[in-house]
Design a protein that fits this description.
Distance between the termini: 145 Å
InterPro entries: Cell_Wall_Dynamics_Protein, SH3-like_bac-type
Shape: elongated
Organism: Suilimivivens aceti
Largest sheet: 5 strands, antiparallel
Pfam families: SH3_3
CATH architecture of one domain: Roll
CATH class of one domain: Alpha Beta
Number of helices: 9
Protein name: SH3 domain-containing protein
Order of helices and strands: HHEHHHEEEEHHHHEEEEEEEEEEEEE
Strand order of the largest sheet: 1-2-3-4-5
Keywords: Membrane, Transmembrane, Transmembrane helix
Radius of gyration: 41 Å
Length: 432
């Protein structure tokens, strides 16, 4: 057995020597064949590697696409493209905004109505009354994003208003939807667009750059009022005064004209009749104001950004306005209870005037009881205080022309009045 294995090894050795000798004798034929085989092996390895890389890349792209779809599905309003917020990018739009705001400052309702397709009679009166207190708008910056259709824009107008009796200018931000008419002229449309446009404005307004702009203006507004008591008081007074004046004008429009009323009074006097209380001059005018949200905004339990949230108001949602406060908040009725919304996010929808013709004689004339016995008119701006002393705490400022409910004129030079629902005092020299 051992001899057999040795014979096999000897034979293999001889064959290997023979192959070696053959290769050495035929080198010119063998070497090219070997080279070709090596090249083929290299190509095979490269192709295999490329296929693996391509498959890996395709897998990565597929995974990224799936992740993108999942992310897109989680983003509300994905269908609304995110455009950069442009500042003063369109001179034509800036010009129409300037014309519009100049008209507001001058009370030019005709010009405003020609630019704004949504302007009811109450807003016309409000604009005319407000213009009495506005000097101009020295700062106007227009921020825009494209609208739904060609040549339409969502415009956010930053303004600073200069009031005639106040040194400090007050900032504000308002949203408009601007389009073109058949002649290519731009116009402002802030109320007649449909739900599709309204939802588009809502989604655009929730984009980060618009939210940042809005927050910046709100902070600027609130800081100014917090730092300047007189400005705060003036803003509160002005809002109340405008609402009151608008209500009086609407009430007069609903009553017989003055000449007819005078004729009837003269006829009654001629017949020897005594005019009963409850004439127009004695009427108590109350204005019920409805407002709507111009943006998605929190409804809170009190007038503070740290107060508890009750709900979110949606664009176009209406509320009964109970009070506009000088700190930038409005008290509204929500689900039968008092609630608070930032005033910047509300605009007036309608106002209904209610005239109470109750007898003036029904009011108590007992001054010591703290009830009203008539009114006094402010001759000069005067501080309203908690007691009859110049060192007493101030409750606010009464302005020229403002009427205060009279309780009693005192011998010490002070007049006791009702002011914002509480007993207060003003110097008698400043009222009549």
């Amino acid at each position: 057995m051992k001899q057999s294995n040795q014979n096999k090894l000897h034979m293999l050795k001889e064959k290997s020597i023979a192959v070696k000798d053959w290769i050495m004798d035929n080198t010119k034929i063998v070497m090219p064949v070997v080279l070709v085989v090596c090249v083929l092996i290299t190509i095979f390895v490269a192709i295999n590697a490329n296929q693996k890389e391509a498959l890996k890349k395709e897998a990565e792209e597929a995974a990224a696409a799936i992740a993108g779809q999942e992310e897109s599905a989680s983003v509300e309003g994905l269908s609304t493209p995110v455009y950069e917020l442009e500042e003063n990018a369109y001179p034509e739009i800036n010009n129409i905004i300037k014309t519009y705001y100049d008209a507001q400052a001058s009370g030019d309702v005709e010009t405003i109505a020609s630019l704004n397709t949504y302007l009811n009679d109450i807003e016309k009166i409000r604009i005319q009354e407000m213009s009495k207190y506005i000097e101009d708008y020295p700062v106007l910056n227009v921020y825009t994003k494209p609208g739904l259709d060609e040549n339409t824009y969502v415009a956010y107008v930053y303004s600073e208003v200069k009031f005639t009796d106040v040194d400090q200018e007050l900032p504000g931000l308002k949203t408009y939807y601007i389009g073109q008419d058949g002649d290519g002229q731009y116009f402002i449309n802030d109320g007649t667009y449909d739900d599709t446009v309204r939802n588009y404005i809502k989604e655009v307004t929730l984009q980060d750059d618009v939210v940042d702009l809005n927050n910046k203006v709100v902070v600027e507004y609130n800081d100014l009022l917090a730092e300047d008591d007189e400005l705060n008081e003036y803003v509160a007074y002005l809002k109340e005064k405008i609402n009151e004046d608008v209500g009086v004008i609407l009430a007069k429009e609903e009553t017989p004209d003055a000449e007819e009323a005078e004729g009837e009074a003269a006829e009654e006097e001629t017949e020897g009749e005594t005019e009963e209380p409850g004439s127009t001059d004695d009427n108590i005018v109350t204005t019920v104001t409805m407002v709507k949200a111009t943006d998605v905004v929190n409804i809170r339990t009190s007038d503070s950004e740290t107060a508890d949230k009750i709900d979110k108001a949606q664009i176009g949602q209406e509320f009964k306005l109970l009070e506009q406060r000088g700190n930038g908040w409005s008290k509204v009725e929500y689900n039968g209870k008092d609630a608070y919304i930032k005033s910047e996010y509300l605009e007036t929808v309608s106002e209904e005037t209610v005239v109470d013709t109750g007898s003036a004689e029904a009011e108590s004339t007992d001054a010591d009881s703290g009830t009203v016995s008539g009114t006094v008119t402010v001759k000069e701006n005067v501080k309203v205080r908690t007691s009859a002393s110049t060192t007493a705490d101030s409750l606010g400022t009464a302005y020229v022309g403002e009427k205060l409910d009279l309780i009693m004129k005192q011998a010490d030079g002070w007049t006791k009045v009702k002011y914002k629902g509480q007993t207060a005092f003003v110097k008698s020299d400043y009222v009549e």
